[in-house]
Write the structure tokens for this entry.
Amino acid sequence: MSGERTGTLPLASEQHIVAARQTVRTLCQTLKLSLVDQTKMVTAASELSRNTLIHGGGGRMRWELVEAGMRQGLRLHFEDEGPGIADIAMAMTDGYTSKSGMGLGLPGSKRLVNDFMIDSAPGQGTCVSITKWK
């Protein structure tokens, strides 16, 4: 990972979720994010990786080190070709849970990061992008 600005990891098993968490922690450390911000980003990545695996049937996490002016950040994209989300507004409601949901859910993940975008439609899969800025 030394010097790389982008990368992709598969999300097809529990071991892949662990690897994604470790990669995100390392990238956060590379950016010298505070321990609190590292923990927030790793927690959000863990939740979204699990969603990709459980609800999307697996997919991938793409990461990129990004810059905007003087700011540096880490952007993660969680992508799948699963069934998609029929009602994004409902899925973004606090307290909403799917039949197997026990995690933070999408709104909890959104609160942990600076930027959050979701793109999904029934039968089209889902892409959730999150960014944490230093």
